[in-house]
Amino acid sequence: MPPEAPRRPTRALSGIQPTGRFHWGNYFGAIRQYIDLQPGAHQAADEAYYFIADLHALTTVRDPARLRSLVHAAAVDLVALGLDPDRAVLYVQSDVPEVTELTWLLMTVTPMGLLERCHAYKDKKSRGLPADAGLFTYPVLMAADILAYDATVVPVGEDQVQHIEVCRDLAGTFNHLYGDVFTLPKPRLVEGGAKVPGTDGQKMSKSYENTIEVFEDLAAQKKKIMRITTDSRPMEEPKDPEGDHLFELFALMAPETDRAKMADLYRRGGFGYGEVKKALVEAAAAFFADARARRAELEADPARIEAILAAGAAKARAKAGEVLGRARRACGLARGETMVSGGKGGHS
Ligand code: ADP
Ligand code: TRP
Q: Is the pTM of this model over 0.90?
């Protein structure tokens, strides 16, 4: 039998912006997938790196106290939700300055036209809003975020796929010019790719003010749930659960048997949406009960989160330093260092 080719290690990496507290869309659309990719989990990668993208958030959050508090809350939330710092590297983007230096190297191979086509900038411009260079060059920073760690798989929502393409483009150009420096990553979309609906039925998003936050106070959460918009069909009329946003939310959180029962209730008719909302209030509280308890413990011990982030930053810096060194040597910086260690070894 021919010898098997050695399996290439997989490294998952993703970042999430601390521009607000996490909502159900962020959890089911992104965070849950990060957790599933941690080593030891059911879809595990060999390694996982997750970070809080505070440099990216600077293009929208201009209040320093708020930014600091959102970064801390994001770290607590992620750990409470199941991100395990013993299995994944958890860090804050700005704690790894190597990434910003790498951003510059990549900027020198970035065509303006490529960035002009990117949606974050294009959307703002088309709405007549002023855009800064930070927003314009945001995809280059994101490329550096990914390339600095030799990431192979990047779990993201559909809105970020374009940025992964930019990342691959820049890595390809750099490698073409200077040799085999960067590992080309692949995006990984959430299974099913479904969008979590907000309280008004459109995609849940901070920008639409239709979010339900994962850790908001239960009484406030209940009020929001009771106000979810519904259609005005009479109670007696049977309804199709598929495509009903209230049912979709319930289905995300309820155990399988309750989900099937609720779907039957919809098809039979003769019930009010108020009942479904009450069931959703309970399902959500039960689904996140353990995470809430963990969050309360973590909140009582802020030094613990800071220690987790410091350890994460140290690991992240070690890896990013290695890749940045490779890139610096390849393009003619790093005078005095030899080119001998310029290749990327086993990660190609
Ligand atoms: P927001 O739209 O509230 O500003 P972000 O753009 O910061 O949220 O999203 C962070 C991550 O959460 C991204 O990976 C994004 O795809 C995912 N996400 C956000 N909202 C939803 C949603 N309603 N359904 C599925 N995934 C979502
Ligand atoms: N731009 C991403 C978002 O808004 C966050 C992000 C920054 C990211 N750097 C990244 C995601 C690197 C994946 C990989 O959701």
A: yes
Query: CATH fold of 11-196+301-331, please?
Result: Rossmann fold (3.40.50)
Relative to the CA of 157, which ligand 2 atom is closest? 15
Q: Enumerate residues 6+ apart whose C-beta is below 8 A from 121.
A: 115, 131, 135, 136, 138
CATH 3.40.50.620 in the chain: give the residue spans: 11-196+301-331
Query: Which residues of the chain are in CATH 1.10.240.10 domains?
Result: 216-287
Quickly count: other Cβ atoms within 10 Å of residue 229's Cβ.
Answer: 15
Cα–ligand 1 centroid distance for 83 (angstroms): 18
Residues with CB under 6 A from ligand 1: 16-17, 19, 25-26, 29-30, 156-157, 159-160, 195-196, 203-207
Which ligand has an atom closest to residue 120 CA?
2
Q: Is the dihedral of CA 39, 41, 44, 49 positive or negative?
A: negative
What CATH code is assigned to 216-287?
1.10.240.10
Residue 164 scores a pLDDT above 90:
yes
Is the predicted pLDDT of residue 79 greater than 70, yes or no?
yes
Q: Flag whether pLDDT at 339 surpasses 60.
A: no
Residue 105 pLDDT = 98
